[in-house]
Known about the structure:
Blueprint: E1 12-18, E2 21-26, E3 30-39, H1 41-51, E4 54-55, H2 61-70, E5 78-85, E6 88-91, E7 96-97, E8 119-122, E9 133-136, E10 142-148, E11 160-165, E12 168-173, E13 177-178, E14 181-182, E15 194-199, E16 210-215, E17 219-222, E18 226-228, E19 241-244, E20 257-262, E21 273-278, E22 282-285, E23 289-291, E24 304-307, H3 308-313
Parallel strand pairs: 5-10
Antiparallel strand pairs: 1-2, 2-3, 3-10, 4-10, 5-6, 5-8, 6-7, 8-9, 11-12, 13-14, 15-16, 16-18, 17-19, 20-21, 21-23, 22-24
Keywords: Calcium, Cell adhesion, Cell membrane, Disulfide bond, EGF-like domain, Glycoprotein, Lectin, Membrane, Metal-binding, Repeat, Signal, Sushi, Transmembrane, Transmembrane helix
Family: Belongs to the selectin/LECAM family.
Domain Sushi: 183-244, 245-307
Amino acid sequence: NKHAYAFLILQMALWDFDAMQLFLTVKAWTYHYNIDINVDWKTARQWCQKNYTDMVAIQNHAEVEHLNQLLPFNKAYYWIGIRKIEGYWTWIGTNKRLDPEAANWAENEPNNKGSGQDCVEIYIKRSKETAKWNDEKCSKKKATVCYLASCSKESCSEHAECVETIGSYKCQCLPGFIGPRFVQCRPIENPQQGFVTCDGDFGVFNFNSSCQFHCGTGFKLEGAQRLRCLASGHWDNALPSCQAVQCLPITDAPGGWSMNCTHPLSIHSFNSSCEFKCEEGFELKGSNTTWCDQTGHWTHKPPTCQGTAHLQNNPH
Length: 316
């Protein structure tokens, strides 16, 4: 008896049976099927698009179980709205690739037996592997199951995706958003001996903003030059620092001089200076001081010390 079916769907508003076709009018995602005639996959989709939204797009295992309870047995089983596109199983109604964790393939499926099995059927109320999926040739004749979407452009904010659920829908925040707010990363301050410049389409220190680091004269950046705020609320790299440029150590050399160095930042680094002196009886030839400059080089080479007697015999 066609009036003997009883299916529970949330927020149901109207039931109406007509020639083995079920029409449900509700203010949420609803399922609709046609077992009056079995058709190929393309024709099944055209029927769904004409009368509803599209062929059913299954999002999780709870939905699989719901469909298995809802739909009557059909010997040829039912088409669902997934097919192989460019080598990937894709939900054609939502244009999303199949999440492997949400897949419900039968054992050893999909196997592309005989090649060209680019469409998918669901084994509704089958005695073995019930509600499992099987890849099949799109030309085969099967029943049709569709969905009517409840999501609209006004359902969620511009920063959220409307996700259909059984008998309802939910607004799922896009990456980088928490409710109406942007995800924020920890504010960044200027590094010592440097400065930082930040910008972003959603505001400084918010999701997808970036900060670029610069160092002052005589300092070089250690770490990433640019950081980006991720959807997780963390920067994609550790904070860099500005380190003083290093000069090579001045090594002792025969010549009779001694030196006294000062290192205001770190040893042998930018702004370090050394003063040279000769021992008694020797005269310094060259500069008596040298500085570590911003390029990492000493401004003067170490001097030499010559004995005064030698200078008297060789005035030039």
